[in-house]
Amino acid sequence: ERAGRVEEACRLYGLAVEAAPGHAPARMNYGAALEALGRTEDAVGAYEAVLAADPSNAYASFNLGRLCFLRGDMQRAADLLTKALTHKPDFPDAYVVLSSVQEQAGDLEAALGSLQAALRLRPAYAGALRNLGLLLGRMGRWTESEGALRRATMAAADDADAQYWRGNALVHLGRPQEAAACYRDALHARP
After folding, report:
1. What is the residue-wise DSSP string for 44-72?
2. What pTM did the predictor assign?
3. Which among 190, 166, 186 is positioned nearest to 178, based on CA atoms?
């Protein structure tokens, strides 16, 4: 049923784009609907068309950058996410995805800075806290990792990944009983 609604929304947004090709919101929604249907290449085209008409559209830069990251085009993703942040510096989601690009490139300090920027904008951002915990763990900073992951689980108690990774951080800190409780919470959140 839901897939049928997305298909219908995609059809209607497609008609709206045909009727008003320069209407950025219709094109953005069309891109999102195409993404939801798994038509990534078509979604890329929709976001590129928005940027062709309005190069300062931070949301189109973000969406296209996110898709480039998912496709493995790290340089283009970094460029687009940086562009999004140039036009909208208070965009925590862009900082989080940029941090993933930076981490993939091996620039852990830059990734850390991007996550910290996201958290300055939205302190209880569970996804950013989870990613921060994972990154700090990768850097061997287990106490800080556990703290970030604890905050992530407080922000989103049903985040099984944060619970699981917090358990791993606790194991590294020599706290196996607390780790076991986190693993149980993770299994409860995602049986």
Report:
1. HHHHHHHHHH-TT-HHHHHHHHHHHHHHT
2. 0.91
3. 166
CA within 13 Å, CB half, 34: 21
Tokens 């190069």, residue located: 55
Torsion 65-103-163-91 (CA) sign: negative
Q: How many CB atoms lie within 10 A of CB 166?
A: 30
The tens place of each residue's pLDDT in the chain, 191 residues long, gives 355 688 998 999 999 999 998 899 999 999 999 999 999 999 999 999 999 999 999 999 999 999 999 999 999 999 999 999 999 999 999 999 999 999 999 999 999 999 999 999 999 999 999 999 999 999 999 999 999 999 999 999 999 999 999 999 999 999 999 999 999 999 999 98
Structure tokens at 21: 């090709």
Q: Which helix (H) or strand (E) holds 145?
A: helix 142-155
